[in-house]
Amino acid sequence: MNMKSFLFIFLSTSISVAKVVYVVPIQGTIDLGLPPFIERVISKAETAGADGVIFDIDTFGGRVDAATQIKDAILDADLLTVAFINRRAISAGALISLSCEKIYITGGGTIGAATAVDMSGKKGSEKVISYMREEMASTAEKRGRNIDIAKGMVDEDLFFTHLLLDSDSVLVEDLEGRKEGKLITLTTEQAIKYKIADGETETLDNLLKLLGLEDAEIRNVDVNWSENIVRFLTDPVVASLLMTFGFLGILFELQSPGWGIPGTFGAVCLTLSLGASTIAELATMTDLLIVLAGLALLFIEGFLIPGFGVAGIAGVSVLIFGIYKLLIPEVPVGEDVYSRAFDGMVIGVVGGLIALILLFRLMIKTKFWNKLTSPGVQSKDEGYSISIGLEEFVGKTGETTSDLRPSGWVTVGNKKLFVVSEGEYIQKGEKVSILSVDGNRVVVRNNCSNLKE
Asked: Which of 94, 98, 110, 434 gives 20 to 30 Å between its CA and that of 73?
């Protein structure tokens, strides 16, 4: 053996590659902001060539659709995934735990009770229970864990007396959830006994020793600012408020010429709401098309049919329905999600209207508003005039190009004027006379009214 070969072998055996483990917290309520975070961490760990990802779990559950997305991300991971149940993994937390290759649990911990319930605690429909039951069963089957126990965590109508463990039939007497009408929730000892968990440990350091990764570099990862924003914006109440402010802002903008603060504010709110919903996979293409259809009807009402009529009412209705659809996920859900979506929509619409009224009342009392709307008092005595040269049209006759309710558009010769009637409704295509001009306020009367008088 020559010297170069010897040195190569010596260096290869003496230099060890540093091991890396990512630690990810899954704590508190599981919402739609968590899946993008979990997917980002798994992708980052795979790119870095990490030896594994440990999920530090302590949760009472949350959204089924969010847990399903997290489960899919973990099952698709190309590295070791470990659930460290740091006290409890209830409901959606149980599904996430079962998706990991290894499960370790602290003393006094629990896992289970994964049935779907609504906000009042009532059991979900059979459709929802069936979906969640089979999600749990297929996940347990994928990881080689007992399917009957996984199903029993969801469906209280199931019961059994024996379980098949390591090809042996085992009599089960210590599980209350084996009885009909009872859900399965496992203690630490039971989870290990029935092969749901791989072992018990109290600390992360000891868990690393059990995994043979005691010398690994630990990289703790937490939700970043953008993911926190997504979690906040996808809250049902916040999302519906944003949508309400969005379409109200644009609606107010359409009632005035040009483009200003209300339209800009509305566009920003809509962008935030739709963007967050798309990132969280809450908004589907159908939902977005419904919202865009509502906005299109409002634009038609504003620019092509001045006033507020059928197109405007239809636009508002379609937009509100789109808001409701945006708050409902595509996966099967229980009545609690529909209820939260409806409550969020109602709170958003009503709250948005109240907030806008209060905001307007506060704004008109501020110095900034006074400067913005009337930067200086300019009286006639000082030689100022608010005339914009429309006085010459007084007494002339024109034709309405939109319905006047009581405002709208009139054409006088080659001039198009924004006018207001004396309070009466005047249809499009009627002949009107210009009664008076006060600055930019042009008052008209229907010629038919003159004939009647």
From this structure: 110
Residue with tokens 């006060």: 438
> pLDDT tens, 179-221?
777 888 999 999 999 999 999 999 999 999 999 999 999 999 8
DSSP 180: T
The pLDDT, as a whole number, for residue 126 is 72
d(CA 368, CA 261): 14
Q: What CA–CA distance (Å, rounded) separates 393 from 407?
A: 17
pTM, full prediction: 0.60
Quote the longest CA-to-CA distance of the chain.
121
Tell me how far apart the alpha carbons of residues 294 and 250 are, in angstroms, rounded to a whole number: 11
Report the C-alpha gap between 28 and 216 in whole angstroms: 27
Concatenate the DSSP letters of all residues of 182-231 into one string: ---EEEHHHHHHTTSSSEE-SSHHHHHHHTT-TTSEEEE----HHHHHHH
- Res. 275 pLDDT band, cuts 50 70 90: low
Class for the domain spanning 17-223 = alpha beta
Domain 388-452 indexed as CATH 2.40.50.140: yes
Give the Cα separation of 240 and 246 in Å (integer): 10
What are the extents of the domains in the chain? Answer: 17-223, 227-361, 388-452
Residue 135 in this model has a pLDDT that exceeds 80: yes
